[in-house]
Amino acid sequence: MNERVLIVDDEPNIIELVSLYLKNEGYEVLFAENGEEALDLFFANPPDILILDIMLPDIDGLEILRKIRKESQVPVIMLTAKESEVDKVVGLELGADDYLTKPFSPRELAARVRAVLRRSRAFEQNTCDVIETPGLRIDPMRRTVEIKGAKKGKKSVNLTATEFDLLYFFASNPGIVLTRERLLERVWGYDWACDTRTVDVYVRHLREKIGDDAQNPRFIETVRGVGYRFKWGENA
Amino acid sequence: MLKTLRSRVIVSYFAVVLVSLILAGIVFVFFLARYTVQREKEEFSAQTLAVSEQVRRVVEFIDRREPYNQERPLGFLGTDVILLRGILIASSRIVGAELLVCSETGRIIARTPRLPFRERLSGVVIDPEFLQSGKVMVTEKSLDNGGGEYLIAAALLEAQSNEKYFVVAVKPIKELGSPLGRLLIYLFAAGLISTGLSMALGIYLSGMLSRPIRTVARAARKMASGDFDQRVEVTGFSESRELARDFNLMAERVKTAYERQRGFAANVSHEIRTPLTSIRGFAQSLLDGVSTSEEEKKRALEVIESESARLERVLKDILLLSQIDAGELATNRRVFEVSDLLCRMEVIYGGIAEAKGVEMIIKTPDPPIKVNSDPDRIERIIGNLVDNAIKYTPEGGTVTFSATSSDRGVCISMKDTGPGIPRDRMEQIFGRFYRGEENRDEGFHGAGLGLAISKELAETLGCILTVESAEGEGAEFTLIIPLKDVVVND
Ligand SMILES: Nc1ncnc2c1ncn2[C@@H]1O[C@H](COP(=O)(O)OP(=O)(O)OP(=O)(O)O)[C@@H](O)[C@H]1O
Ligand SMILES: [Mg+2]
User: Fold this and answer.
1) CATH of the domain spanning B5-181
2) Nearest residue to B96 (alpha-carbon basis) of B176, B157, B183
3) Which class does domain A131-230 fall in?
4) Which CATH class is domain B229-329?
5) With a threshold of 0.80, does the pTM exceed it?
6) A156-185 pLDDT, tens digit each
7) Which of B385, B429, B432 to mutate to test the pocket of ligand 1 (most atoms within 8 A of CB)?
8) pLDDT tens digits for B54-75?
9) Among residues B368, B370, B399, B402, which one has the least CA distance to residue B478?
């Protein structure tokens, strides 16, 4: 059975372009040019992945994502033409799994669709162990993260799927320097060179959520010019 | 050192208080000194008189015991002189001065021991006539023996003798005005307290003066670092209120200008990125071999072509707007006929209207009207209006295009039978990048710059662009070229 993709964008040319590529890869493509249509279509024919433009004539793309997230955990790739919207996309509570800024290469979009789908399939099959460090408790089954404070207090934080995967991968490889390329490959599932800035954006948001300071990190340390490293011990 | 407003105010307060205190002190001390010396002199003479009275009584008492004798002038015995001296010594304590009794010639008969004179009262002229009436003569005299200046008071000592005797009191002048010293201490203390108070007042007042300036300065600093939400509280004295109000007004303006600028940049980038995505994507599809059939290849090239054209149009529009913003737009005025313009519109847009199935009616003015304006700009303004009218009028509708003379000038109007414009959007449609939502998904790929350009161009030419419409009943846009630009034919 072919996987179904729903594309929502108000530009018919872009829909045409993206569906050209996705159909070529063997996906079943549905599309909508406005928010209303998109929601109807989504609930009538639930897709396996959603490609969503932020700027739509009627309903804001983020609003659509919020509505959909109430019902479903379907993977979502957001499209945006405004650099300033990137933070909104990534920072969203039940955020997008990935994003692309226009102009994007349709080839890259197709590759990301593939990767995101592979990732969500992998997650469904995986049974991973709970990781417990002096500062964190990461439960992949329940997808919860607890931060252990200095005063024995515990605080659970909400992470998006990508943020969770990123943190879990970090915690599974403590003390090892992880390059951006390696992270893209293992967390995002990209097996080709693409923009590594995505990693930095997600790491920044992850740090913010788990209360980590980039200058004086407790968990994720920046290794200048190379990548990142996860610190296991509290005061290591 | 005196760089801050605060320190300046404090120091100037201090200086003012100090100067006025010193002035008041000088005047006060001067008059007070004169007054107390006067008072003391009077008291001194009164006391001298009292002492002389006392001495007289003693002498009378002695005289009664020992009748007057030529041999014993004044009736003073050796022992009586001792008695007299005793009286003088006792009295001198009360008067606070040295005392003596002397004859008219200045010969001293009795004296207190610390008196600066020995044998005679030299250099002091005593006028018996003056003293006769019971008065006291007060003179100031400086003695050569280094004792300094003295105040000398003399009173007549009455006796039944032809020789006259006097009681004389001598007091160093520097002992005069001694209570002034204590007063000066009080004065000094008062001065200290008042300067202290003035400092405190200065600190308070300077704080009051500098606080609004400092809050505004702080807010301005934050604004400079990019926080445009800074507002200051309108409080305090009227100038500070004015400062705060004006600052807030400025902050508001800066914020809207900044936001408009940012919104504009974001919209520009959106309008450029969107066609770029299609161009790049379809080009890639040709390279990747995703578009394989002849039909698909042709389609890709068509999209690339049309999106390039769209990109070009957006860029031109943005360039034009930025020229208007910078005030760099050159206008090229000349006299032309309005009906020529209408005919050009028919040539350009007639085909498009026909293709869409919209009837286009043109009413040329009779008699012809000539105006002095920039024909290219006017054509651009009108062109945008015609483009909209055809674009938003559904198949089977009519677009009426006319020019008439009125008392306000030449009205070029564009009336359509399209969906019209809701009342609450009448203003918005002239905004940059504003596009009606309902039109967007019907395949009109405008950037929303058409009406903004028309409106702003009209303003630079001194024309007025208005719209009248009721929802569902079509819209009528009217460009009014002012009377002063209308050329009257003779
Ligand atoms: N004649 C009209 N009838 C109904 N609506 C109109 C008419 N003219 C303009 N509008 C509304 O005003 C909006 C702004 O018009 P404007 O010409 O500025 O932008 P556009 O036509 O969408 O794009 P562009 O002119 O840049 O290609 C339009 O999107 C439309 O909703
Ligand atoms: Mg237009």
Assistant:
1) 3.30.450.20
2) B176
3) mainly alpha
4) mainly alpha
5) no
6) 888 888 888 888 888 888 888 888 888 888
7) B429
8) 877 877 777 666 655 555 555 5
9) B402
